[in-house]
Amino acid sequence: MSLHSTRRIAVDKQFLTTAAAHVGIAAGAAAFAGAALCGATALFLNEALNAGSGASGPSGSGTQFAEQLWRVFLLLTSLPFSGQLRAGLETIGGFVSTGDEGFTIGVWPLASLAFVGLASVLGAYLLERRHPQRSGGMRAGAAAAAGGAFAVLMLLVAAPGVRFDAPGAAATVSALGPALVPISFTSVFASGWLGRSLATRKQHEIAPTGRPRSPLARELASLATDVGIYAGALALTGAVLGTITLVLVFLQAGALSAQLPMLLAGAPHAAFWALIFAHLGAVTVTVPYTAVEGISVLSPELPFAWVSVLPVVLASLGSALLIGVGRARTRTPELARIWRLPAAVFVLWMLGSLVFLPVTVSGSATVLGFTLGELELAARPAFWTPALFAVWALAVELGAWALPDRASALTPRVHALATRIRTRLGGFESPASAAWAGTAPTAVPSPSTHQVPPLLEPARDAAGLPSLPMTARTKRRLRIAGVCTTIAVLVVTGSAIAITSVNTQRGAVAKVRAYVEAIAAGDATHAGELVDPNVETSQRDYVSDAMLASASERITVLDVVETELSPAAPSTSWFEDPAKEEYGSGRERRNVQVTYRLGGTTESTVLVAERIENEFLLLETWRVVTPLVFESVAGTSHAMDFTIGSVAATPGPVETLTWEGSQPVSWVPFSAYPAIYPVTGTESTFYSVASEPVRVGPVQDEHVPERNLIYTPTEALTEAVNAAVTAKIDQCVLSTDASPDGCPFSTYVSGANTALSWQVASAPTVSVSETSDRFEVEDGLVSYSYTGSSGRTSAGSSPIRTTGTFTIVGDAVTIEFS
Known about the structure:
Low-confidence stretches: 1-10, 47-60, 439-467, 570-584, 657-661
Radius of gyration: 46 Å
Number of strands: 30
Largest sheet: 9 strands, antiparallel
Number of helices: 18
Oligomer: single chain
Number of domains: 4
Distance between the termini: 138 Å
Structural class: alpha+beta
Helix content: 40-55%
């Protein structure tokens, strides 16, 4: 065997060995990431892994549990490379079904994916340093071989899936998806090629080959350095913002330790979304059967989140300075290259926005035979996010052209620090740029090399002009400009903080709070100025200061928050069904939920606030559209005047149907602010009055109205009615008719002109109704006698039995027989 063949076999063996080792490192990292994700999920879901332990024997239960645990581990190991879980649910009897495809849960565990990528980069770097490949093609081939083997391994890992069996239901979960193979191959191949390239670069720095790179290679290296600097600055900023976000979420969740691992797993998503918000971007949230909502740094759900814009501005300025000190000086921005960084950023964010960052749950389901249709619950960056980041990258490009000169004049130390950092990073475009940065001055030989040492010539910019030192006047102007810029930034920042704070006090929630607090304080005049109560003129007394002042208890405001709940439809009448009321002004509207306590119970209602024209262009102005006025009724057992709060009411005729049953009542409807108002009846010697206050608020079962006034007749009324009945009967017996008109007795005699003589034989008993203005007369007897045409005298008797009504006018009682 020849020496060339021996070397060829050794090289091939080394190629395969390093590729296999690379696969092993990546697989080990993936297994570790899967185990960590499995543990975090188990801790978060508590006993979710006990779903498959339904066997009767202990050994069988342990075996099933171990098998399910192993399948869940494999599932979560392959999840970072598929980005989705397909879940199907079937129940016996077909009550719930998600079909063959089921629901697709789309979420990329970026923490696990990043861990595998870093492990792959480090492993490839160490392998290349220990067993270097002969050429770039061999390095790419080794990375490709490792990526292909890893993709096949992940495909085999994801194939088993998980099945959970429970009484009456079965659920299947699988991580197989179209993205599994390409993502797993690309992640290992790209990270492996990067690690091997870094190792080769280190070797070239130690022992340079002296072979110059092509212009295209230099341009690509420069672009890669610029992208790396910008990405590193954003990564540092995102890490800070993401950490703050996680701390806030952790504290708001009650500091539950079980949620901490899952929060750490979602840390990359938090960092990326915090970066999107800080770049003035938005995240769209899709919820079934509701409109798509966009959340941005200016949303009321994220108060003071606009402060996150400041770290991004500082990171952009810093990365622009680092990029700029590595470039040659030019009089104007180079239009031929200004688009490169924005284009690269646009492509990278397009990939992230479409693939890695969205969190979605989509699919269809059938419940009790009814198909719910295609459902989607998602949170994803707004579609214009890549373009927004490209604009920021363009600003960084312009800053890279403009900042180095200004930084050198205003803050030499910052410029020197940026130069040292860029020197360590490398990537100077040309010797001229290195000279501009102060790291490679150029020497000019003297006319006679034997007389004086070489002189240093000032570095020249790309236009060929010497870069002369700045004069004191120029430096002073630049300093003044810098001070003015700093003052302007501070003024703008302070103004933004002040305007935001003022607008917080002038927003929809603040306006509603002022309104309900005015009602709680009894200031109906101020409440009416904020919101017209929208009641008839005849009802205005019920929404007055006197009415609220008469309340035995007013509301106590507990909370006022913005909500997604819709306001309750107003009713046209207290006794009728609610009627829809549309609000169609086209202006921005917010629903605000008001929670208050009244009468020992807590009630909530939703008010609508509408934004109107700003004051001084910047100060928000809102007005409340829906008044906090409720319709109510007060009932009385007798049609006598009474008072609701401070307003006198005149009831109508008494009816005989109430919520208590067949009870007489007269209802008086009215509209008022929520409170408990006293109801006062008419006091007299004939009735004693029992009163109950009326509660004004949302109509609820426990607040069904009863009679607020119940009149009970006294002995004086019975005596007065009895006296009136006696007087009426005494008047009736004076009649000579057989049937006295309007009297409770009568008889029949022949002859129309026969005169009768009446006399009370037995006084009747009078009973007064306790629930109405009626009375009953019974057990009385009258006798009569008359002389017929033959001259014969006849006698007889007639019972006194009838009913009637009585009327009270002042201290007098009048009656009328039925």
